[in-house]
Amino acid sequence: MIRIPRNHTVYSFSRRHPARYRARPGDSVVFETLDALGGQIVDEATPIESIDWSRVNPATGPLYVEGAEAGDTLVVEIESIEVSDRGVIVVAPGFGALHDRSFRPRAKVVWVKNGRLLFNDIEIGVKPMIGVIGVAPEDGDIPTGTSGYHGGNMDVNLITAGSKVYLPVFVEGALVAIGDLHAVQADGELCVAAVEVSGEIQVKIGLIKGRRPHYPIVETLDRYAIITFGRDLDEAVYRASEEAVSILSRAFNAPFEEAYMLSSLLVDVRINQVVDPVKGVRAEIPKKYVRLDHLLYP
Ligand code: CA
Q: Could you give the domains of the chain?
């Protein structure tokens, strides 16, 4: 089993990052990850002002995938996620959906035990998920704190054990990196943080040659979710709608007008997060109506 230690981190997705770890399609790989704050909040007394922002959003990797080339699809099947028992949530003025409000910066430590956590005396079920997962873009360095066609800080709570993530490959080896585990996060991630935890993620690497999706895709038991982004939610929703209609049109060999009608009946548009540098939404299409084939392009 290939295991990438949590000190092997990057803070951007880029073809310039050397890959010390390599895997072949079919291999399982364990990514050990730090929490999104780089482990800097040690207790509730740690001042938020003391955070070194250059150490925020570490992603473990990159991993070089043998045989991956531009135009392919990297398949990352999430086999299991183990989270540490200590999680941290932060709030600070200037961040989150209510960024204009004045309030005290604060960190809260919560303990995860037997699949549950306690926030004061409120019991909340744990559903571990991956916040950051992406590949190197064609050019440039994209910080791990944001998202785009390459994936990145998507903060999609569907990216959990049992789901598959399909990422378009832009460079040889794909150069995938993963981080930012959340013990639980609701759609929106309103306060800017979720329950940020370190942990271990075991994935199985797959590769589809010669075709790729326009946007990252998450496959769950019964749905395909197309993950889009935008400067604001309107732009993200526009992209999600445009892609969903195009997929329905291919799936049913339907003219635009009918695929557009069907999108109102079959596609759920949901919010991933409203707090990162670009906002994220997803268009969910039931697998009953489309095949993976309809989501990939030559
Ligand atoms: Ca995140």
A: 2-208 (2.60.120.580), 217-295 (3.10.28.20)
